[in-house]
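ugh ok fine here u go
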Amino acid sequence: MYSWKKLSSFGRNSIIVSFTVMFFGMGWLYIESPEQLCNNYLLIEQITLGWGFVTMAICLVIYLVYFYFIDHSQYS
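structure:
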């Protein structure tokens, strides 16, 4: 929590972008895999988790677009 405040906006956005790419990749892997990747999930649960990853990645993209277009001078 304390280190997040010390990061620059470029550092924060870099971490968010890396999580976005990871979530898209994991979501695609879980959705497109023809067999179970984990013994704890049934195949339908794996596909549901994949769509959850993709949805989270889309939400992070929306956040990044919002962050890019907002005026940050009023918050400083």
